[in-house]
Amino acid sequence: MTKQAKWANMLRLAGLLVLVAVSGLAQAEYKLNFQEPATKVAQNVYDLHVWMMYICGFIFVVVFGVMFYSVFNHRKSSGRTPATFHESTTVEILWTVVPTLILLLMAWPVTVTLLEMRDSSNSDITIKATGYQWKWGYDYLKGEGEGIKFMSVLSTPKEQIHNSAPKGEHYLLETDTHVVVPVGKKIRMLTTANDVIHAWFVPALAIKQDAIPGFIRDASFRPSREGVFRGQCAELCGKDHAYMPIVVEVVSQEKYTAWVADQQKKMAAAADDPNKVWALPEMLKRGEAVYLQNCVACHQANGKGLPPVFPALDGSKIATGPKAGHLEIIVNGKPGTAMAAFGKQLSDTDLAAVATYERNSWGNKVGDLVQPNEIKATRK
Ligand SMILES: [Cu+2]
Question: Do domains 29-118 and 125-270 have the same CATH topology?
């Protein structure tokens, strides 16, 4: 084989490898690729990704092919003399028109998909997602299920996070409650936040929308198949940014109707009588549950906190001092610190319970009891 033939063979091989790589992407090996789309828009996004890869692959092969061919075949040692043309109008028109056409080929389908993505009109159900440090809150505002609201908190056990238990299948992608929606219906998602910027990101639904305090942004999706789709907060929002996943469960219409009825029943059952007078043991039990769901990330299970940013509650002046000061901070937060105003997130009874728990746990032995009506008075 002559030297030239060898080079030509190697070039052909390189081109072939690139083609194989690009076609492999198109064959949807979802484990290495985007998540399997669950809406038409997500399918479009996926197809666009493949289309762009084809265009990039094609340009790669052509440009490098011509370049290597020229470098090799027109090298000085083979006796070539350089061309000396300047300002060729034909070449200049070509290298303007061809890239413009390629850009149009890319921009057209992208614009069509973007417009479809941004269109949240005529939706069947409207859900508001509120980002908190570090959990999501959901309110079903319109459509079937109107009035349903709940918090959605990471449910991966602490032992898995601290490597004292093997990691589960959906490690850090599981929550205690799911956003349930019916298949085939258009869902409008409103996003906002309570403290810092978060983002509601579910790849299989092709939604990634910032949740900004003081603003309402919207996005929409129409799930084309049933299933459980997982996502995460996608805007760095502080210490537990990695611990506020999103789980969307797409179910049949019948199952959705049943879920709505079930949620409404649960909400009615969970509604507390604000005038009830509680006894210490039952308040402590409830307070512990509220604490473990809302306070533990910063103040820790042992009440020692993570000083200096997250102060200890065990032995703290606030948790063992006068009740009024303690309740004030729990209800209204502490401006300028990470302490949120939990009055916006929890009921009077839950707040009373957690205050009681904090005053009587670890080394704290105040011995008093906070009733829901005291929280109500603090709110004013
Ligand atoms: Cu976040």
Answer: no
